[in-house]
Design a protein that fits this description.
The complex is a heterodimer of chains A (about 220) and B (about 190).
Chain A: H1 13-20, H2 33-38, H3 43-66, H4 76-98, H5 100-106, H6 117-127, H7 132-162, E1 164-165, E2 168-169, H8 184-218
Antiparallel strand pairs in A: 1-2
Chain B: H1 6-16, H2 27-32, H3 37-67, H4 74-96, H5 98-104, H6 107-110, H7 115-126, H8 131-159, H9 171-186
Helix pairs in contact in B: 1-8, 3-4, 3-7, 3-8, 4-5, 4-7, 8-9
The chains are: A mainly alpha (about 220), B mainly alpha (about 190).
Chain lengths: ~220, ~190
């Protein structure tokens, strides 16, 4: 059966999972690295930042997709940025209302979600071309992938740098915290370490896939 | 040094709290445009220029917003101003010096999504600097961005000749270098006293 091209693109499981792993915004596409490095000094901050970004991604994806036939092509980037900035302002005030400590810890990086290239990238590359349902599912996947990456960094940095996890002490008083991991250089080192781990993984997968292909050709 | 003297503000933004290596702003161009020394230099110049323009505009707009009690619109106004400032700079350079436009060409539109620019506008508002202090702060931030970019580009040009395991090639290695640079810049932390 041939699909009618006018019908919306099918909603498949991979629309959701692509952002989690295969096109993970941080580990694969290297987008939005500023918050990834800056606010991952504790796992709590990392989780909060990830969820805030997911919320903005979801809402802006929804609105951009709804308005995709209304926004003229020439001013689309400006319109997307205004949409994103609106939701970031909402998030900013919401976090301020929920927890002032968290707001102080994340600092200017909540407002800087506006210039997170993951969000603008999704709006331009996906939400502006796809129906609302797909855009929302894709944005959710991407947001959770981003949160996952932030948590990967946050957990390692908090455990090594302060000897705790989500604020709970892990090792007792005899543990000498490895302070460099909470400081800026630690962010670079831990992200570099994760990228290295994923590069090794991918190399393994490629090597495992090759002999099978060769066997297939022989048959 | 007085904490509100112009020299201190400049050094603070350029070296002690370097925008890239200590505050993590503008990491995307830091990794993206630092492969060649020449393009790093041009990108640095463009960023300094846009920072000056947008910081001046942000200062004026913040005054207006405070006057009319509209601070909740600050973020939206700033980002709109920055996007138009970048556009304006692009058109001006095209008109005044086509040669410079050709060298900068690709990098100019990218500056809109450089979080160092919006970060600068937000920080100077939070720090409540006056107009001259804002100028010193924005030049300092731009120079700091340029220093980081040029250092990184120099290191990466050398590294191309080095023999490293192939899994560490690319981003992982660049970030490791960034970490080492950031460690070095932490040594300036006591400079302000």
């Amino acid at each position: 059966m041939v699909r009618d091209p006018r019908l919306p693109a099918p909603l498949s499981w991979s629309t959701f999972t692509t952002g989690l792993w295969r096109e993970n915004p941080v580990f694969v596409m290297l987008l939005g690295l500023c918050p990834v490095l800056a606010v991952t000094n504790t796992a709590t901050n990392a989780l909060a930042m990830g969820l805030a970004t997911t919320f903005v991604l979801l809402c802006s994806g929804l609105l951009v997709s709804l308005l995709r036939k209304v926004i003229p092509k020439q001013v689309r980037i400006a319109s997307y940025i205004i949409i994103i900035a609106t939701f970031v302002t909402i998030t900013d005030y919401a976090i301020q209302a929920i927890s002032l400590d968290l707001y102080r810890a994340l600092g200017a990086f909540i407002q800087l979600i506006v210039v997170n290239c993951v969000i603008l990238g999704r709006a331009e590359a996906y939400a502006s071309k796809n129906p609302v349902r797909n855009a929302v599912v894709n944005a959710l996947g991407m947001g959770l992938g981003f949160t996952f990456a932030l948590l990967c960094l946050g957990v390692v940095r908090e455990v090594l740098g302060s000897g705790s996890l989500f604020g709970a002490d892990l090792f007792g008083p005899s543990f000498q915290p490895w302070a460099v991991f909470v400081l800026p250089p630690g962010g670079f080192f831990v992200l570099s370490f994760w990228l290295f781990v994923f590069a090794v993984f991918r190399k393994r997968q490629q090597r495992a896939a090759q002999p099978q292909q060769e066997a297939g050709h022989a048959a | 040094m007085q904490p509100d003297s112009l020299t201190f503000i400049f050094l603070n933004a350029a070296i002690i709290n370097n925008f890239v290596l200590a505050l993590f702003l503008g990491i995307c161009p830091f990794l993206g445009v630092s492969a060649k020394l020449n393009s790093a230099w041009n990108m640095g110049l463009a960023v300094i220029f846009v920072m000056l323009v947008s910081s001046t505009c942000a200062y004026g707009i913040n005054h207006l917003l405070v006057k009319y009690d509209l601070e909740f619109l600050r973020l939206i106004c700033y980002i709109a101003v920055i996007a138009s400032a970048v556009q304006l700079v692009e058109m001006t350079i095209k008109k005044v010096s086509p040669a410079l436009f050709r060298t900068l060409g690709i990098f100019l539109p990218l500056i809109t999504t450089n979080c160092a620019i919006l970060g600068l506008a937000l920080f100077q508002t939070n720090l409540a600097y006056n107009f001259v202090q804002c100028l010193a702060y924005s030049i300092g931030a731009g120079v700091g961005f340029m220093i980081a970019l040029i250092l990184m580009a120099g290191l990466r040009e050398k590294l191309e000749l080095a023999d490293v395991p192939d899994v560490t090639m690319g981003a992982a290695l660049s970030l490791m270098l960034g970490g080492l640079l950031s460690l070095i810049f932490m040594g300036f932390a006591g400079l302000g006293g």
